[in-house]
Amino acid sequence: MINNKNKALVVMALVVALSSIGFGMAFGYGGGGIQTGSMSTPTPTPTPTSISIPTPTPTPEVLGAFTGPVIIPTLPANPTQADYQNLLSALMQQLSYLRSLMTGQVAGASTGYQFTHNLQLGDSGEDVTQLQTFLKAQGADIYPEGLITGYFGNLTKLAVQRFQEKYDIAKSGDEGYGYVGPKTRAKINSL
Q: How far apart are CA 5 and CA 97, in angstroms?
């Protein structure tokens, strides 16, 4: 059985994990905090009194069958085991969701955009923005930086090269390597 001190540590570890990937929460603690030492009374546990979270919005389905942000429950003044379990579950779902977004592992990698123009280093505009969005959706192994700037720079070129290698379109030394020409466009449009 998890005691109150361990419950608080689990909750705080999840908060730290969420914070480390850019998800901020503001906690206010009520009560006397965690006490240590040999006492005959149970150790009081910090109780989050308010949590700031973003308003949930519709999001793409994330691999693992979870969709969108989670409403993180607020613990009551005297939380039960079930309250802690609900909080832990919500935090784990949120952490999983945020990690999947950061790694680009979002189901439905196709943007639905049809590429009709060749693209190369130095280009900019909507076609490049859509290309970067597509490459980011392919995952961190293709476009680890995941930047969507609308400018076809070196990072986009490297991502195109990784995509071309993955689908045997071109390799280093080949003409068109890092260039979005007819073969690369056809493959992108087919996905």
A: 27
Query: What would the DSSP string read from start to end of 88-119?
Result: HHHHHHHHHHHHHHHHT-BS-----PPP-S-B
Question: Parallel, antiparallel, or unpaired for β 61-62 and 66-67?
Answer: antiparallel
Report phi then psi at 48, rounded to 5: -60, 130
pLDDT of 172 higher than 80:
yes
**In the prediction, which pLDDT does 162 show?**
97
Q: What is the pTM of this model?
A: 0.46
Handedness of CA 181, 143, 22, 13 (dihedral sign): positive
DSSP H helical segments within 122-181, as ranges?
126-137, 154-166
Give the pLDDT score at 128: 93
Where exactly are the structural domains of the chain? 4-103, 126-190
> What is the radius of gyration, based on Cα positions, of the chain?
23
Residue 81 to residues 8, 75, 146, 163: CA-CA distances in angstroms?
Answer: 12, 11, 40, 48
Number of H helices, E strands in the chain: 5, 4
- Among residues 41, 30, 38, 42, which one has the least CA distance to residue 6? 42
Residue 33 to residues 8, 102, 167, Cα–Cα distance (Å): 10, 34, 56
